[in-house]
């Protein structure tokens, strides 16, 4: 399933050169985006970057100042929200407090004039989907936060919209429930065969649920790619730093021969060989980004201590159960992070505070960033 790699595939949702201004303020600028049918797509970015505005333009609650949004090849300009085959589930999934779960779900269907037997069938179906059949007669205040969230979800898919828009849908749930519900969302999306568009500022959430992620900043999309590519091949320094932990070394490009890229870093003094070629020209400013879990930490020097290797002192160790996060301080005062999987018991930890250690990594462990 990778329709975005197939140029013959037509996008299901398309933002074409869309700009949205609120007065003088530009919330979204000249934005282009294609989303494919049955895709689970995430808009990810910090607060205020324009994610919700983008989603509201698709739902019809906002009009683009310039450009247009297309659904199934048709422009949405002038189509009112209730005529759009997109349903939005809001951050605060307000349920009607005086109605039972099944009445809450049936409400929208009744308003659409659906015959009663069909409504009953549809309500039963979606309750089964979200595993809430036994709670059908309860009112919202008799449910947990997670169950209320699932009622809201059932309500938004009951009309079988072509697109479900989820605006921070799991924001109110605690970490464990949130993680469980993320997998339920994936299952639900696959069972329904619908296109899901989720807005989140939580990178782990986006990585877990989405087929592809658009990383946004200040009204622009910086990179669109599947989660593993966003993490392993970030297009810019911003993306590398926004997603997960990363060590970044700024330096200048010494040489690039199509197979290897050599970078000289002056502070700390370090020579980096980064396998892949880059488009940057010799002498230009570049950065090298390497994730903490790709950095090895050892008491003995690596085979070639002149390349991709640094020395420092263990400054902090964060124990996370399954892994430990090491902060190693270099002679210039800077910290480099290395993560170790705790396959041994912590009491047997071979490397500890104040140890003088070597940090090293493989040639293909990181990426060269030119922006
Ligand atoms: P959050 O995660 O905090 O919801 P977001 O990325 O979804 O953030 P948007 O809600 O899309 O951000 O807002 C983008 C920018 O547009 C913000 O700076 C916001 O203040 C501004 N904005 C949004 N709606 C309006 C409006 N109706 N009038 C004026 N400015 C607005």
TrEMBL record:
InterPro entries to which the protein is assigned, alphabetical: AAA+_ATPase, ABC_SmlMolc_Importer, ABC_transporter-like_ATP-bd, ABC_transporter-like_CS, Mo/tungstate-bd_C_term_dom, P-loop_NTPase, PotA-like, Transp-assoc_OB_typ2
Keywords, ordered alphabetically: ATP-binding, Cell inner membrane, Cell membrane, Membrane, Nucleotide-binding, Translocase, Transport
Reactions catalysed: ATP + H2O + polyamine-[polyamine-binding protein]Side 1 = ADP + phosphate + polyamineSide 2 + [polyamine-binding protein]Side 1
Protein origin, superkingdom: Bacteria
Residue runs in coiled coils: none
Pfam family, one: ABC_tran
Record-level GO cellular component terms: ATP-binding cassette (ABC) transporter complex
GO biological process annotation, one example: putrescine transport
EC identifiers of the protein: 7.6.2.11
GO molecular function: ABC-type polyamine transporter activity; ATP binding; ATP hydrolysis activity
Enzyme class: translocase
Segments forming domain ABC transporter: 13-243
The protein's assembly and partners: The complex is composed of two ATP-binding proteins (PotA), two transmembrane proteins (PotB and PotC) and a solute-binding protein (PotD).
NCBIfam families xrefs: potA
PANTHER family on file: PUTRESCINE TRANSPORT ATP-BINDING PROTEIN POTG, SPERMIDINE/PUTRESCINE IMPORT ATP-BINDING PROTEIN POTA
Job of this protein: Part of the ABC transporter complex PotABCD involved in spermidine/putrescine import. Responsible for energy coupling to the transport system.
The family this protein is said to belong to: Belongs to the ABC transporter superfamily. Spermidine/putrescine importer (TC 3.A.1.11.1) family.
Descriptive protein name: Spermidine/putrescine import ATP-binding protein PotA
């Amino acid at each position: 399933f990778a329709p975005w790699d197939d140029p013959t595939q037509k996008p299901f949702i398309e933002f074409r050169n869309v700009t949205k201004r609120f007065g003088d303020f530009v919330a979204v600028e000249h934005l282009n985006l294609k989303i494919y049918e049955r895709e689970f797509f995430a808009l990810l970015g910090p607060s205020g970057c324009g994610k919700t505005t983008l989603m509201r333009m698709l739902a019809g609650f906002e009009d683009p100042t310039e450009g247009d949004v297309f659904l199934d090849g048709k422009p949405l300009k002038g189509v009112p929200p209730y005529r759009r085959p997109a349903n939005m589930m809001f951050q605060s999934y307000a349920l009607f407090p005086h109605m039972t779960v099944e009445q809450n779900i049936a409400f929208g269907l009744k308003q659409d004039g659906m015959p009663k037997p069909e409504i009953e069938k549809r309500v039963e179906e979606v309750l089964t989907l979200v595993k809430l059949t036994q709670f059908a007669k309860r009112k919202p205040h008799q449910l947990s936060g997670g169950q209320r969230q699932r009622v809201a979800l059932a309500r938004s898919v009951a009309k079988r919209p072509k697109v479900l828009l989820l605006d921070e849908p799991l924001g109110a749930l605690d970490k464990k429930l949130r993680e469980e519900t993320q997998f339920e969302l994936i299952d639900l999306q696959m069972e329904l065969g619908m296109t899901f568009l989720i807005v989140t500022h939580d990178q782990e959430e986006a990585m877990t649920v989405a087929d592809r992620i658009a990383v946004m900043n200040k009204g622009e999309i910086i990179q669109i790619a599947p989660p593993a590519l966003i993490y392993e091949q970030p297009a810019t320094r911003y993306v590398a730093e926004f997603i997960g932990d990363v060590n970044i070394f700024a330096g200048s490009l010494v040489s690039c021969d199509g197979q290897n890229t050599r970078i000289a870093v002056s502070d700390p003094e370090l020579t980096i060989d980064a396998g892949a070629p880059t488009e940057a020209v010799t002498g230009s400013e570049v950065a090298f980004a390497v994730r903490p879990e790709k950095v090895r930490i050892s008491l003995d020097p690596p085979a070639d201590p002149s390349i991709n290797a640094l020395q420092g002192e263990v400054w902090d160790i964060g124990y996370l159960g399954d892994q430990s996060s090491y902060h190693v301080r270099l002679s210039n005062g800077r910290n480099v992070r290395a993560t170790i999987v705790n396959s041994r018991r912590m009491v047997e930890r071979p490397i500890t505070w104040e140890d003088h250690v070597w940090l090293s990594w493989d040639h293909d462990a990181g990426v060269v960033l030119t922006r």
